[in-house]
Amino acid sequence: MSSDPDAGAPRRRATIADVARAAGVSPSTASVVFSGKAPVAERTRERVLAVAADLGYTGPDPRAASLRRGRSGIVAVTVEEHLRTAFLDPIKTATMDGLTDGLAALGAGVLLLRDDPDAAPDAPTLATAPIDAAVLIGCSGRMRETLQAVRNRGLPVVVIEGDAGEGVPRIELDNVEAAAQIAHHLRALGHRDIGVVTLSFDGERVRGDATPERIAGITTPVTKDRLDGTLSVFPDARVVSAGGSFIDEGVLAGRLLFADPEHRPTAVIAQSDLLAAGVIRAAEEAGLRVPEDVSVAGFDGIAVDGLGDHILTTAVQPAVEKGRAAGDAVARLLAGEPAASISFTCAFREGTTTGPAPGFVG
Amino acid sequence: MSSDPDAGAPRRRATIADVARAAGVSPSTASVVFSGKAPVAERTRERVLAVAADLGYTGPDPRAASLRRGRSGIVAVTVEEHLRTAFLDPIKTATMDGLTDGLAALGAGVLLLRDDPDAAPDAPTLATAPIDAAVLIGCSGRMRETLQAVRNRGLPVVVIEGDAGEGVPRIELDNVEAAAQIAHHLRALGHRDIGVVTLSFDGERVRGDATPERIAGITTPVTKDRLDGTLSVFPDARVVSAGGSFIDEGVLAGRLLFADPEHRPTAVIAQSDLLAAGVIRAAEEAGLRVPEDVSVAGFDGIAVDGLGDHILTTAVQPAVEKGRAAGDAVARLLAGEPAASISFTCAFREGTTTGPAPGFVG
DNA sequence: TTGTATGCGTTATCAG
DNA sequence: CTGATAACGCATACAA
Fold first, then answer.
1. How close is the nearest chain B Cα to the Cα of A67, in Å?
2. Is residue B8 part of a domain?
3. Cα radius of gyration (chain A)
4. Do residue A82 and residue B104 have CB atoms under 8 angstroms apart?
5. Lowest mean pLDDT across A185-189, A211-215, A308-312, B183-187
6. Among A331, A353, B293, B341, which is disulfide-ready with B288 (CB 3.0 to 4.6 Å)?
């Protein structure tokens, strides 16, 4: 080595053929030394490795290997929103966590993709990235077109919390039942005037009281299913939509619900724990005690910061398991086996934020 | 199509050669139709496209293209912790956001990698994934070995908030100065008894009072720099380490600092806003008013839920810009140009959580 | 256990 | 504007 190793001729990187030649073996033998796919004499092995180190060969070029193998070892994970937004959702991060674990166990890496209509023209997309499969987190509107690109390529697809159409395995929750269970809990406690704070109806993030037409037009399955479950028990509940699953949005919705002291609900069902935390804050702002004056229930079963001593009544969903299940489904699909949709069950958790309706004698 | 389209002969997917043949043009012409790298007669173009649609050809195989081009269009982003943990940190997600934007503009996708020593043997790593470059978020201990693998491959590397050694461009903050500025602010307000709540010292997440030996052994640059800045102004400050940047950890540290009413600090400098929020909560628990009885400052300048009406005194860091800058640096490196390290400057923000020391007459 | 021969699907180059 | 040709770097089936 001279004083400046980079100054020399820009000789191309060594290939496995170079290594083989220098070690006096055939390319296939050298290949096997690195892949371990077949036994190699110890002496041969050592010689090849030594020569490789000498030549600065650091292992097979993944690009060439993936062409040859027909697999890249990469699975796309696509979210609908901006990343910062997606990762603000504790459920999504937990799911991502299980998913990366599940995929890693399978030997695959995760290519993070955002379903962005106006990305750079040459940026990788579901249609162009070197992926073996795709997992969609959520699937509404535009995403469904994007999806077609993947299916055209003949790649396996799994969708978490979304409807991607026929033949695409779905990983879901029993949102309807879990929501109904919460509603029944409140009904048994004597509540009759119910407020519902929903997740967003579609990509639009509109806030405020929902008209029947708007409700009929909900495109987000999670929102719709949880609402259906609630309305099956409380058909006359007042429905307010939030602009997303954030504490602040819950505060806004809560203020709306508690604005008129004459006509306020005795219980609020929020479609996420974060929203519920916001509703609780709004209640306290309005001088209402939880659960004495108003009961509040959430959904998700995550740990919420800023909830004080309250333990939220909620439906605990197995978020990490959902991700892992998606990973498993991808593995099966990749192995050519069929993969069925899976619906996970939430566990109802009674906390300290719900109690008997004022004046109710159980 | 028969009733079961998948039942037919498993004829392999059409290649660009098939399309070219069927369209009566050469493979190179067909290639150009898809890449747009050269002008093509409109009629030829249409014919090729029509034939492609007919054959179900959905565009060049990315694996083959990347082998030929020598580029995969994928950049690895490596975090040290478990994903769920990493994305719990608002600064990291904001940085990721800027980074994905910056890389997307460059036409690259993001392969999310965790520096996991015991991952599946065939899972992609920095050493084996088909990537064009790598961005490390944080770089301590074990990660440095991993890094060697990338450098051996001759791939460009950029590190955000970490020291990856000679020749690796770093994207950083002026942590020392920003921390010193906060300290000077408190000093000017008459504070002399200072408590410091630090981020974790290393991967170990040990909580509690720090001995000089432990302080000397800090391996996380962020922690060390911010602490150095603080100690340069308050050499005798009491240092307590937290187990991570969480509100709950801040609460624990705060309880420790406020445990003895006789010897409690009049001001606490936390190394993150989340920790500061926790300290404030601990102060209120202890019956202390902020800032009348105790001042609290943070670091980061993020929006913290659960802070009530307080506006945190803090150093606002340009987190998204950091990510974008890393993306730019990768672009330069990929273009063969040199990329220098960049140090971003924090903006001091005086909020409502710091005030004059009790009894201090300015 | 090792070597030989092929082709994976593209795209850059250069000549027409 | 189009076509012929030659790699890109590797892994596998098969023969020895």
1. 5
2. no
3. 27
4. no
5. A308-312
6. B293
Does the beta carbon of A117 lie under 8 angstroms from any beta carbon of chain B?
no
A109: chain B residues, CB-CB within 8 Å: 111-113, 123-124, 129
Please check whether residues A234 and A167 belong to one and the same domain: no
**Nucleic acid strand C within 7 Å of B55 CB:** no
Same domain, A221 and A332: no
How many whole angstroms separate alpha carbon A116 and alpha carbon A79?
Answer: 9
Nearest CA to A196 out of A279, A303, A311, A85 is that of: A279
Whether the CB-CB separation of A197 and A240 falls below 8 Å is answered with yes
Domain of B79? 71-173+319-346
Going A125 to B55 to B18 to B10, the CA torsion angle's sign is positive
State the pLDDT at residue B362: 66
Instruction: Indicate the Cα dihedral angle A27, B154, B121, B95, nearest 10°.
Output: -160
B241 plus B332 within the same structural domain: no
Peptide bond into A291 cis (omega under 30): yes
Task: Render pLDDT for A49-87 as a digit per residue (tens, 0 to 9).
Answer: 999 999 999 999 999 999 999 999 999 999 888 887 888
First to last CA, chain A: 87
**Domain final position from A294, A316, A338:** A316
Asked if residue B362 is part of any domain, the answer here is no
User: Which CATH number is A161's domain given?
Assistant: 3.40.50.2300
Amino acid at site A205: R
Shared domain check, B309 and B187: yes
Token readout for A73 is 């070892």
pLDDT (tens place) for every residue of chain B, 362 residues total: 333 334 334 457 899 999 999 999 999 999 999 998 889 999 999 999 999 999 999 999 999 999 999 999 999 999 888 887 888 889 999 999 999 989 988 889 999 988 776 777 788 888 899 999 999 998 777 788 788 888 888 899 999 988 888 889 999 999 999 999 999 999 999 999 999 999 999 877 789 999 999 999 998 889 999 999 999 999 999 999 999 898 889 999 999 999 999 999 999 999 999 999 999 989 998 999 999 999 999 999 998 876 777 999 999 999 999 999 999 999 999 988 899 999 999 999 999 999 999 987 76
- Compute and round to an integer the Cα radius of gyration of chain B: 27
Tally the domains of chain B: 3
Same domain, yes or no: B243 and B169: no
Residue A357: inside a domain: no
* Contact present, B306 and B362 (Cβ < 8 Å): no
User: Is residue A10 included in any domain, yes or no?
Assistant: no
Report the pLDDT value the prediction gives residue B87, as an integer from 0 to 100.
85
> Taking CB atoms and an 8 Å cutoff, what residues of chain A touch B154?
13
Give every CB contact of residue B270 below 8 A, 6+ residues apart in sequence.
B196, B197, B250, B253, B276, B278, B279, B296, B297, B298, B299
Put simply, the chain B residues between 29 and 88 with a CB less than 8 A from any chain A CB are 56, 58-59, 61-64, 66-67, 70, 72-74, 82-84, 87-88
pLDDT at position A166 is 84
B281 shares a domain with B257: yes
Query: Is the full-model pTM beyond 0.85?
Result: yes
Tokens linked to A338: 């069929």
Are B207 and B100 within one domain? Answer: no
Interatomic CA distance for residues A159 and A168, integer angstroms = 7
Nearest nucleotide by C1' position to the A31 CA atom:
D11
A248 touches chain B (CB under 8 A): yes
A200 with A214, same domain: the answer is yes
Closest CA to B268 of B314, B200, B327: B314
DSSP code of B204?
T
Q: Give the strand pairing for B347-349 and B170-173.
A: unpaired
Q: Look at the block and give the residue holding tokens 């090849």.
A: A48
Find the angle CA(B106)-CA(B111)-CA(B112) to the nearest 5 degrees.
Answer: 130
